[in-house]
Design a protein that fits this description.
Blueprint (H helix, E strand, L loop, with lengths): L9 E4 L8 E4 L18 H12 L16 H9 L1
Antiparallel strand pairs: 1-2
Amino acid sequence: MRDNRGSFRTQALFAKGRVNPLEVAVTAPTLVYMRWGWPLTGRSKEMRLIEAALSDRDCGGIVVCGAAGVGKSRIAHEAMT
């Protein structure tokens, strides 16, 4: 969402393992239904990489990319909880 100056509003995101918060753009909310109750399986390598990056003081952020439906949102959610 843009403020009255045309800039995106930002919000502090406190990431696990990070001392300083990350600034993220605030967007309009969307309704998304996801089944977070199921255990995440088969992604231990990816989770270790994300956790290592979040622990690294020199890391400015992480990009999770992939084809539709491969679990990008799920692994991001798991990494932030």
